[in-house]
User: Which sequence fits this backbone?
């Protein structure tokens, strides 16, 4: 077990090192997130009352779309350079290595999106009561987005230009995350307790962390062998 856990840590360290060498590419989802928030007042309404009403759902939808932008290369580069075949040979520790890759994806995508959320809250006139629930829900929810999205990336790893198919696969699975994430913020703004939807969102994230690596391993074995 210790050896397998070390596989997760080693893979995580490797992925973060590789990510540090392509910072421009990794910045695209974050730039998309911010630019979309800046364009919403221009396309809908600059009135703060209108923006505040739409802000919880809009921020979560933008987080989802930004995550989708970063999913396609998650396993594709390993598939092209042959390192995925080496990973498949490690039968016992493959799930732990996959877990490391998925955690690295969240650290370089989901966590930055969460940290920049206060800026978006300001741009969209989100009431102060919704700031803490927004950060908490994004911190938990983006974990679920990364892990669920990895299943779609694994299923489409052998396809060229798989972005549309990947989106079609994971979008239905993202619906509960969006519902509970935006509900967490909305309930806080309305003055109600927001812990219940946050707990449901955390349950989804824990289930994704526990189950998705196993599903991804099976999907990679299926698609990489084709």
Assistant:
């Amino acid at each position: 077990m210790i050896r397998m856990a070390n596989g997760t840590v080693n893979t995580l360290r490797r992925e973060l090192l590789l990510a540090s060498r392509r910072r421009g590419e990794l910045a695209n989802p974050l730039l998309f997130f911010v630019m979309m928030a800046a364009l919403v007042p221009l396309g809908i309404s600059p009135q703060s009352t209108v923006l505040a009403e739409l802000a919880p759902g809009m921020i979560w939808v933008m987080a989802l779309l930004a995550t989708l932008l970063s999913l396609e290369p998650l396993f594709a580069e390993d598939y092209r350079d042959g390192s995925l075949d080496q990973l498949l040979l490690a039968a016992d520790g493959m799930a732990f290595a996959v877990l490391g890759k998925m955690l690295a994806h969240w650290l370089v995508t989901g966590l930055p999106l969460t940290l920049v959320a206060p800026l978006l809250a300001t741009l969209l006139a989100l009431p102060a009561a919704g700031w803490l629930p927004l950060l908490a829900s994004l911190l938990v929810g983006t974990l679920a987005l990364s892990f669920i999205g990895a299943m779609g990336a694994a299923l489409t790893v052998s396809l060229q230009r798989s972005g549309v198919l990947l989106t079609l696969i994971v979008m239905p699975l993202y619906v509960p995350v969006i519902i509970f994430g935006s509900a967490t913020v909305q309930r806080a703004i309305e003055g109600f307790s927001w812990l219940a939807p946050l707990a449901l969102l955390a349950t989804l994230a824990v289930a994704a962390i526990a189950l998705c690596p196993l599903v991804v391993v099976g999907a990679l074995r299926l698609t990489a062998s084709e």
Q: What stands out?
A: The longest helix spans residues 195-224. The CA atoms of residues 55 and 75 lie 33 Å apart.
